[in-house]
Amino acid sequence: MSKDERLVAPTVYQCFAPRVFLHREEAISEQFGKLQIRRPMDSVKVRMESPQEDEFGLVNLCGLSPYMGAIFARAERARNRYIQFLSFKEATAEEVGQWKDAVVYFYKKVLFKKQEKRLILKVSRRR
After folding, report:
1. What domain range is 64 assigned to?
2. What is the rounded CA–CA span in Å between residue 109 and residue 103?
């Protein structure tokens, strides 16, 4: 889907630098645009402009993500703290508000760069 010219997905750079990508992305692309790595788990080639899962952008903006539990996988307390952000059932109203603000902020910035396109989001559904 990310190859469809009518659609846009967050890039690797946008997800790992969500606060600054609007004014730094072109300069970074000039310096590192040809840089390419292979993901260790599947050997897929990844570049700065490759599509990336938006959850990484949210981790970098607000830290309210189950991915934080993976970062601190050995600390059971941290795992338990961040696993709640899979469903937000036990999150406080303030945390929910912070997360929503980060989501809207991030998606608006991604769409600002490509205003004529529609945003691709990866969504999981509960069964």
Report:
1. 7-116
2. 10
